[in-house]
Write a structure and sequence with these properties.
Distance between the termini: 26 Å
Number of domains: 1
CATH superfamily: Alpha/Beta hydrolase fold, catalytic domain
CATH architecture: 3-Layer(aba) Sandwich
Keywords: Hydrolase
Pfam families: Abhydrolase_1
InterPro entries: AB_hydrolase_1, AB_hydrolase_fold, AB_hydrolase_sf, Epox_hydrolase-like
Order of helices and strands: EEEHEHEHEHHHHHEHHEHH
Number of helices: 12
GO cellular component, one term: membrane
Strand content: 15-25%
Protein name: Alpha/beta hydrolase
Number of strands: 8
């Protein structure tokens, strides 16, 4: 039987942060992609907790059940709130896993607060480039708009129908999508600005690092015109001591679709 995962809130000066926590042992903090929430790790958390880990997943400000921040949030702001949660929980140092947006935030935590990070797992970091940055800013300006006829509901349902795998999982993703409607896409703005200097920032990462890519995920980003697949290697070039693992068939939804395979790779790295 897997350890129970509980939910709680942290009060901060910018609003409440919702997080999930369970298990006992060395901490592992999980940071999600945009526009998801800690629900992205619902399948993975019990697997990590079963390996004698205290596993924590937070909803970044502006996502899930966390409050909307009072201003546009930068990646540095998101890193600061991750540290605030660790402080609240009395955690001096944690291993850290981030996916997409969460990976940029995780990298910044390792740069700005190196003493707080043990091992680092960066998943699906995209090399956006100039064209990708332009596309991110277009997406930010367009935003998630509530349509009077409700057509935005079906648009979000169809957005990932090619690879989501099941109606139940798509429903969970759409619920997270809808919590972002009517508000700025905070993380899109944050990553759009951060990725300009991400390579330079990541060069100072000293923590043992696992760089994990889902190949279908990478190809989908190229299909969407966000990031060329080959440009992702800026991460392994910036962090030459990083261990690289590529998962064939890993989609944008891979944290939910292949948790056992991901957990095996991550746990092996954490135990090295």
């Amino acid at each position: 039987m897997y350890p129970k995962i509980k939910r709680a809130f942290l009060d901060t000066e910018d609003g409440q942060i919702h997080y999930r926590i369970g298990g006992e042992g060395k901490p592992l903090l999980l940071l999600h992609m945009n526009p998801r929430s800690s629900d992205e790790y619902r399948e993975l958390m019990p697997l990590f907790a079963a390996q004698r880990r205290q596993v924590i997943a937070m909803d970044l400000m502006g996502f899930g059940d966390s409050d909307k921040p009072p201003r546009m949030y930068s990646v540095a702001d998101y890193a600061k709130t991750a540290i605030a949660l660790l402080d609240k929980l009395g955690i001096e140092q944690t291993d850290l896993l981030g996916n997409h947006t969460g990976a940029f935030v995780s990298g910044e935590v390792a740069v700005a607060y190196p003493d707080r990070v043990g091992k680092l797992i960066l998943c699906n970091v995209a090399g956006f480039g100039e064209a990708g940055q332009t596309e991110l800013m277009r997406l930010f300006k367009e935003g998630f708009v509530i349509q009077p006829d409700g057509s935005h509901l079906m648009k979000r349902w169809l957005a990932r129908s090619r690879y989501v795998g099941s109606a139940e999982l798509n429903h969970r993703w759409v619920l997270d999508d809808l919590k972002c409607f009517g508000h700025p896409l905070y993380a899109v703005w944050a990553v759009g600005h951060y990725c300009i200097d991400a390579a330079e920032r990541f060069r100072s990462i000293q923590a043992p690092t696992l760089i994990l890519w889902g190949i279908d995920d990478v190809q989908e980003f190229e299909h969407l015109g966000l990031a060329l697949a080959k440009d992702r290697y800026f991460v392994s070039q910036a962090i030459p001591h990083g261990k690289v693992v590529e998962l064939q068939g890993g989609t944008i939804c891979m944290m939910n679709q292949m948790p056992e395979e991901i957990a095996k790779v991550v746990i092996e790295f954490l135990h090295e």
